[in-house]
Amino acid sequence: MSAKRIITVFGATGNQGGSVVKHFLNDPQLKNTWAVRGVTRDISKESAKKLISQGAEVVAADLNDKASLIKAIEGSDTVFAVTNYWEKLDMKLEEQQGRNIADAAKETGVKHLIWSSLLDIEKLTKGKLARLYHFDSKAHVEAYIRDLGIPASFFMPGFYMSNVPGGMMSKRGENWVFSLPIASTSPIPLYDTNDTGKYVKAIVENKEALIGKRFLAASEYLSAQGVVDTFKTVFPEAGKTAAYYETAKDDFYGFMKGTGMPEFAIDEMYENMVLMQDFGYFGGASLDESHGFVKEPLTTWADFIKKSPAFAGLK
Questions:
Q1: Element (H, E) at 140
Q2: Does pTM top 0.90 for this prediction?
Q3: Which residues share a beta bridge with 78?
Q4: Parallel/antiparallel/unpaired status of strands 175-180 and 152-157
């Protein structure tokens, strides 16, 4: 029996990386051909110990320390890399961390780097939306990876479904209300982080077709009103009075300031919404090509809300 290929997964205890680790450890085909190495900052955490108990190798590395990244990646066939802008709200830091991973992948001869990326929104919108730092930072790293000539694919996660239940969609009095500062017709590409492993499986199994390509990760586009309409269908009793409400910009800013978020980050959140309304989260691109590579059923918004703790007990 030939030795298993190693897939090294950054953010192994987080949402995206955690799903990749789980899928590669449990999928009947993948577990026979792939060994999973999870990368985390602190291997003494319970979440890291849990991965070890499930069969993953877990190593420590610091995204700000290139030498530690080289050590963590050494011997890997494939690397899934994700960074977390929201941890420090620092675009330049995220870009440097991404470049560090790319340099380490180049130096260790990685055969396939899968970078969790997003579009360059300042470029897409010709400067009209110039404060979407968590998009543009990842896009800049993508450009750097392309310049390095590493064999790479670019995983593009959509709008997190988990942002909606209990947050953007919550109960006001007796009514469930979904509110965003954009029109009800705005298309939202809905993405369940638990599906990440399914998408990454499709990417590694179709490597030759997807080298140098972007892979759009969302199960469906629904309009903001469509999100509510699906809620009404799944929960006909609770959904009788459910509604979409287009929040005024000033009200959105007032609410977000109340959470303690800094002003520049509120600007960023607002532009994220306007992006979907005016330009499209993925610039209007269809999901069909990416879906054509995925063999497993993806989680729809209807599937997701049936299991959401925020909606538990609704009828």
A1: helix 133-148
A2: yes
A3: 7, 112
A4: unpaired
Closest by CA position to 26, among listed 1, 8, 51, 59: 51
Instruction: Report pLDDT for 1.
Output: 46
Q: How many residues does the chain have?
A: 315
- Residue 153's SS3 state is strand
Q: Which helix (H) or strand (E) holds 221?
A: strand 220-223
Is residue 54 a contact partner of residue 25, using CB atoms and an 8 Å limit? yes
For tokens 């390095």, name the residue: 148
- Joined together, the tokens standing for residue 31 give 């577990």
Q: What pLDDT, in 10s, does the model give residues 93-151?
A: 999 999 999 999 999 999 999 999 999 999 999 999 999 999 999 999 999 999 999 99
Dihedral sign (CA 37, 38, 41, 46): negative
Residue 311 tokens read as 């909606």
Q: Which structure tokens are listed for 246?
A: 């287009």
Task: Produce one character per residue of 175-205: b if its CB has 16 or more CB atoms within 10 Å, e if not.
Answer: ebbbbbbbebebbbbbbbbbbbbbbbbbbbe
Distance of CA 182 to the CA centre of its chain: 22
